[in-house]
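Q: what does this look like with adenosine-5'-diphosphate bound?
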Amino acid sequence: MIVVSDLTKSYDGDVPAIKGISLGIAKGEFAVLFGPSGVGKSTLLRCLNYLVVPTSGKVMVDDQHLGDLTTSELLRLRSHIGMIFQEFNLINRMSVLVNVMCGRLHELGVLRALTYTFSRQHHEAAVHALRRAGLHDAELYNRRADTLSGGQKQRVAIARMLIQEPKVILADEPVASLDVKNQHMIMDLVRNIASRDGITVVMSMHHLDLAKQYASRIIGLSDGTVAFDGPPETLSDEVINRVFKIVDDKVVGVEDGQS
Ligand code: ADP
């Protein structure tokens, strides 16, 4: 589903954030990009839908080279790549329903998009997606997004992604702002949705236990390169100690770990 070849990204000609990464991710895999802050997880993740344009190298998603696509072809491909973020990225002043329907904003003409004028079908699809994301209480649907709890906000963000009928889910530290109970609820939800629909998941994360529990594959990054790549059961304590520094289940940089 995803093929990355010799991918490099330097911001403003600076030291590369990722350095010549090559890997393939098969349909239905649940891959976690693991590593401490600053090693390039987010950069790699965002290169997978060209939110960040690589400096060199290639990204192929669903047999399409992203670098070869026109803007409209890229937008069409992106409409089937769902994205969830640590800070949920909802429109605070808008209702839950409108936020979810925004997953299909690209289907509206400019005028309707500017005024968030969705169709009855969009409305029905949003309710369906909210129920799949575990939000069954219809009273919530017309509430402003900023009145919800963190766990509810991430469920709304997942519903917004589901309405896109994604082939790929890119998740950038999606549970880092949540308490432990909600972390597991969101991880369970993403795993269940992905395995039921055969969706490929690539998720950045720095919690070791969660990564081992939910991922089918862990791609450990260190200083912009792949330091480990394999199923969680092969991530031995020896590798963890050699490559990563873990404190309280979180991977930290060596300097952080020593402080
Ligand atoms: P991670 O997700 O592992 O924390 P990032 O991909 O966010 O790592 O960052 C990797 C490196 O790239 C860091 O040194 C970071 O400061 C730098 N970086 C990330 N985004 C930008 C940006 N928009 N402009 C300049 N440098 C950036």
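The pocket of adenosine-5'-diphosphate is lined by residues 11, 17, 35, 37-43, 204 (CB under 6 Å). The first strand starts at residue 2 and ends at 9.
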